[in-house]
Design goal:
By secondary structure, this protein is α/β, with parallel strands linked by helices. The chain has 16 helices and twelve strands. Helix 3 (about 75-95) runs parallel beside helix 5, helix 6 (about 160-180) runs parallel beside helix 7 (about 205-225) and helix 11 (about 315-330) crosses helix 12 (about 350-380). It is globular.
Length: about 450
């Protein structure tokens, strides 16, 4: 039975590039084959629960602008949660996207005790399970919200109070159980408040050791329950804490190495967080691929005039082309996918705006994917990079990286051969122009 929230809006069809109907897909054709794989299987789109069904449209200077029925003050929280689930699955079907994602506190209200909170989450998960069986929509990943409640003001795993650490562990256990029960392809840990506001009251080594042990227990529990999905960390440099320990991909990799977790945990990389860290999205994707920890992505973008995480829908095709070039070069997604971790602008108050935002972004991403595939098929970018480093394939140079030479030996080589290396052009402008042929 329809909730009526979206009126009589029908599922969004693919109508082709010539369509001018904003409620049709122009480029996202899920059955189109790109590099031997269906577009839907390349992109693995997921709709997030929190921004779409939980965010009321507030900002630091103004109150709620989204007057959704299930957000009304004074309503029964579990009745509202059930209505929210009904609306969510209607939206998933209208969009025709294969996955969704959630935090535990997105889907059900927090109770007076953790047992009550867990019961609420499990009750809504029962509804999800039935709706997933009816619709074929799947869970890309679940996670636990360990940053909103007052108890987590000083972090969860990194909290100076061991009782908060234990509470967070118990909350994560239930979120993992629910994710496993619903067939989730991954489980995500976002740092939340795992960081600090001032060093004057912080012992970083203590907090990192706590975080390392917490993550180790998550990995141990994954294996104990037979969860086959990936454990993912989502890097973010700051916000809500001044400094977050999961600053960027490279920082997280160093942390994983320090605690022996580099083969157990991968990255869920967000474009907006990459920008906050002073990187490009493609940098973080390339870094994760290089380090063997690429997993999944949260797709959004920041407003470059703002200094915070604004979570716009991704609409910039050239940026998306470079991102999906890196994703394809990494071998594409396995358990991961493209999660629309994006929210409407607070002036976009109509239900149809939720649909239009996802349709427009899906089309932009599809265009980026096709451009990236064409760049790979063209081969000139990859060939140029290969040739630039070709000298390292010579036996005497490959021996350097294998540890079969020394500073003394290299000094003797330079002096004996009277080496005077000559620079070779990096041809950046040519390569940028080459990219523009495809976008």
């Amino acid at each position: 039975m329809s909730t009526g929230f979206f009126g009589d809006l029908a599922p969004i069809p693919y109508a082709g590039p010539d369509s001018r109907d904003p409620l049709t897909y122009r480029h996202y054709n899920k059955d189109e084959v790109i590099l031997g794989k269906r577009m839907e299987d390349h992109l693995r789109f997921a709709v997030c629960y929190w921004h779409n069904f939980c965010w009321p449209g507030t900002d630091p200077f103004g109150g709620d602008t989204f007057q959704r029925t299930w957000m009304a003050a004074g309503g029964d929280p579990m009745e509202q949660a059930r209505l929210k689930a009904d609306v969510a699955f209607e939206m998933f079907q209208i969009l025709g996207m294969p996955f969704f994602t959630f935090h535990d506190r997105d889907i059900a209200p927090e109770g007076n005790t953790l047992a009550e909170s867990n019961a609420n989450v499990n009750a809504i998960a029962d509804i999800f399970q039935r709706k997933m069986e009816e619709t074929g929509v799947k869970l890309l990943w679940g996670t636990a919200n360990m940053f909103s409640n007052r108890r987590y003001m000083s972090g969860a795993a990194t909290n100076p109070n061991p009782d908060v650490f234990a509470y967070a562990a118990a909350q994560v256990k239930n979120a993992m159980d629910v994710t496993h029960r619903l067939g989730g392809a991954n489980y995500v840990l976002w740092g939340g408040r795992e960081g600090y506001e001032t060093l004057l009251n912080t012992n970083i080594k203590q907090e990192l050791d706590q975080l390392g042990r917490f993550l180790s227990m998550v990995v141990e529990y994954k294996h104990n329950i037979g969860f086959g999905g990936a454990i993912l960390i989502e890097p973010k440099p700051q916000e809500p804490s001044k400094h977050q320990y999961d600053y960027d991909v490279a920082t997280v990799y160093g942390f994983l190495k320090a605690y022996g977790l580099e083969t157990e945990v991968k990255m869920n990389i967000e474009q907006g967080h990459a920008i906050l860290a002073g990187h490009s999205f493609e940098h973080e994707l390339h870094m994760a691929h290089s380090l063997g920890i690429f997993g999944s992505v949260d797709m959004n973008r920041n407003d470059y005039q703002c200094g915070w995480d604004t979570d716009h829908f991704g609409m910039n095709v050239p940026e998306l082309a470079l991102a999906y070039y890196e994703i394809l070069m990494a071998g594409g997604f396995t358990s991961g996918g493209t999660n629309f971790d994006a929210k409407l602008r607070r002036q976009s108050i109509d239900p149809v705006d939720l649909i239009q935002a996802h349709v427009g972004s899906a089309d932009a991403i599809a265009r980026g994917l096709k451009a990236a595939a064409e760049m790979i098929e063209d081969g000139r970018l990859k060939s140029f990079v290969h040739e630039r480093y070709a000298g390292w394939q010579k036996p005497e140079n490959a021996a350097i990286l294998r540890g079969e030479t020394s500073l003394e030996a290299l000094a003797e080589r330079v002096h004996g051969q009277h080496l005077e290396p000559q620079p070779v052009s990096g041809r950046q402008e040519y390569l940028e122009s080459l990219v523009n042929l495809f976008v």
